[in-house]
Amino acid sequence: MRMSTNSIKISADAIRNSIKVPKHPVWPELSGEEKAELKERIKLLLKEQNAVLVAHYYTDGDLQALAEETGGCVADSLEMARFGTSTHAETIIVCGVRFMGETSKILNPEKRVLMPDLDATCSLDVGCPADLFSQYCDEHPDHTVVVYANTSAAVKARADWMVTSGIALPIVSHLRERGEKVLWAPDRHLGKYIEKVTGTDMLLWPGSCVVHEEFKSVALERIRRLHPDAAVLVHPESPEHVIDQADVVGSTTQLIKAVSEMEQDKFIVATDDGIFWKMQQVAPHKTLISAPTAGEGATCESCAHCPWMAMNSLQNLEQVLINGDNEIHIDEAIRQKALIPIERMLVFAEEHGISGKYTGD
Ligand code: 13P
Ligand code: SF4
Predict the structure, then answer these.
(1) Residues 308, 122: contact at Cβ < 8 Å?
(2) For ligand 1, is residue 246 a contact (CB within 6 Å)?
(3) Axis-axis angle for helices 77-86, 332-352 (nearest 10)
(4) Could you tell me the strand order of the sheet in which 231-234 lies?
(5) What is the 3-state composition of the chain as percent helix, strand, coil, each rounded to the nearest 5?
(6) Which residues line ligand 2 (CB under 6 A)?
(7) Is any atom of ligand 1 closer than 6 Å to the C-beta of 77?
């Protein structure tokens, strides 16, 4: 990533150009019988190793189902972090992306944290290198540093607070009430949305999610005209003009709750379509339409599905349980520093009754 570092100026284009988006992995097709056998073998391995699965809503439906069937957790990044601290399992297998595994390890250093693929990263994490970010913070010592969960342990170690999309608004509002200015990283769209809603004085790191960035506002207007009875649900990592058209803006958990509880029968959804598995589970008779990712003349690279989340499969989950590889390790000095902003968030969530898992209660 080339950036001017003499009083650093970071451009969204420089960040975007530095990110190589992988192709979606293609997993060998399994027959119903093969899949059922594979799931049984994984269940046995989980038991033998006193291991538990923690899966994000964007991962494959088979993984989400298996996590639920085996007493694990399927949730957003806030609840994934919290779950690890409440389980007695000695091994946590995080099906998601790298920052989720790292957060789990930061909170549970005594546990073994494994991931099906350690290369499963996130464009927000990659687009916010710790050295540049630290320099940026040094240049703005009068700002409270708030980072999104989608960052490396080293970036979290430089922060005052960590937030997820499900808790960012109340935490930043709380900081504003205390008269604090905020340095926000790395998602510029989420940052702008929070700035607009809370009226907080914010500096924004110009990173973005390659999946949500592809949702197109003009094409969305068109599809809304075709389905005037549909409610529009948008994850706040999406661009501003997409967010402006939303009936509900929220974290993955908040969008699932909306599908279950709103009176509409039809929803246009601007987030990763892995979430459809849980939405369909909580509201089987409702119709879900993916928000458009390619406007006229444009093509999509991710096409509403995160290529890094797609690196998790039943096949590599079994392998990691057999081999015990793909373990997350974090330098202890960094871990101790990164723990502070994460724990601050968890205490705030506890005090304000904010959850990151839809239970239907
Ligand atoms: P949630 O915390 O809303 O699940 O978001 C995580 C994420 O990576 C969205 O792209
Ligand atoms: Fe990161 Fe976007 Fe994938 Fe979420 S969907 S993990 S923000 S690249």
Answers:
(1) yes
(2) no
(3) 100
(4) 248-249, 231-234, 266-270, 287-290
(5) 45, 15, 40
(6) 97, 122-124, 150, 209-211, 237, 272, 306, 308-309
(7) yes
111 C-alpha to ligand 1 centroid (Å): 24
CB atoms within 10 A of CB 169: 19
Q: Which residues make Cβ contacts (< 8 Å) with residue 28, sequence separation at least 6?
A: 315
| pTM given for the model | 0.96
- pLDDT tens column, 160-204: 999 999 999 999 999 999 999 999 999 999 999 999 999 999 999
297 — alpha (psi -120 to 50), left (phi > 0) or beta? left
- Whether 276 and 289 have beta carbons less than 8 Å apart is answered as no
What domains can you pick out in the chain, each with its CATH number? 32-123+309-330 (3.40.50.10800), 212-290 (3.40.50.10800)
Nearest ligand, measured from the Cα of 97: 2
Instruction: Quote the DSSP letter at residue 273.
Output: G
Per-residue pLDDT tens digits for 273-301: 999 999 999 999 999 999 999 766 778 88
Q: Angle at Cα 116 formed by Cα 111 and Cα 121, nearest 5°?
A: 95
Strand partners, 266: 287
Nearest CA to ligand 1 atom 6: 77
The best mutation among 269, 273, 309, 312 to test binding of ligand 2, ranked by most ligand atoms within 8 Å of the C-beta, falls on 309
Tell me how crowded residue 303 is: count the other CB atoms within 10 A of its CB.
Answer: 14
Q: How far is the CA of 324 from the centre of ligand 2 (A)?
A: 26
Residue 359: exposure state from Cβ atoms within 10 A (0-12, 13-18, ≥19): exposed
